[in-house]
């Protein structure tokens, strides 16, 4: 009895994700790390509308860090949302940041602004000592 209930819940959530959501204005967050790229789309209040990552799109290992994976991730996240205008916030120094931004601009959404939120230390922690090989 409990297993049947769990299957119903999982099917229902899967179906809900595929529905296109309409928002007039949103925020696209791109987190480009050295090993993965995560694209999250929120409304203006900050509630998540759609999300996708390179691993979620089927990439594994070093291919997750590629620009192509970032582009596919951005297209997948945008495909479930219909919006006219968006702000783009990019964080991280990975290879996928430019590719994801290119894919977002090609999608037809009008970008109000693009901001880089990459955390930079103001000479915070002491770096590890030099390697002696």
UniProtKB/TrEMBL annotation:
Any single GO BP term: translation
GO annotations of cellular component type: ribonucleoprotein complex; ribosome
UniProt xrefs under PROSITE patterns: RIBOSOMAL_S11
Keyword set, alphabetical order: Plastid, Ribonucleoprotein, Ribosomal protein
Highest taxon, organism lineage: Eukaryota
Keyword Plastid annotated: yes
Family classification: Belongs to the universal ribosomal protein uS11 family.
Entries under PANTHER family matching the protein: 40S RIBOSOMAL PROTEIN S14/30S RIBOSOMAL PROTEIN S11 (PTHR11759)
Listed name of the protein: Ribosomal protein S11
Organism this protein belongs to: Sclerotheca viridiflora
